[in-house]
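call fold(seq) -> tokens
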Amino acid sequence: MLKSVKVQDYMATGLVTFRPETDLFEAINLLLEHRISGAPVTDQHGVLVGLLSEVDCLRAILTLTYHEEEVGGQVKDCMTTDVETVAHDANIVEVAKLFIDKGRRRMPVINDGKLVGQISRRDVLRAVEEFAQHI
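ret:
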């Protein structure tokens, strides 16, 4: 049964992450270098405290430019802090429903309050495909 397939078996690990005090332009450079649209922000204990997306970066730059302030700052100044997560032992069906209902492309995966990975719509499709091959 597809509900027996767990997020932890298909999530991506070894993610690019930021700390709240990371310089905004350093973060932008890493997003560009790794060709990713966003990354989790964790504290020194690995606890997820936010997400930084391309949109967050653009919003910060435009806001500072509009107010004719010096461009820059830290990740904590512009990251999104209201982050939906999924448990590492959630099943793939639950996550697929979240992707549909919430319109998300990817979600951070948490175990005991700490970031352990990320699951994407593509990861769910891969899980379904592999499951179907074994039926």
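Helices lie at 24-34, 54-66, 92-102, 121-133.
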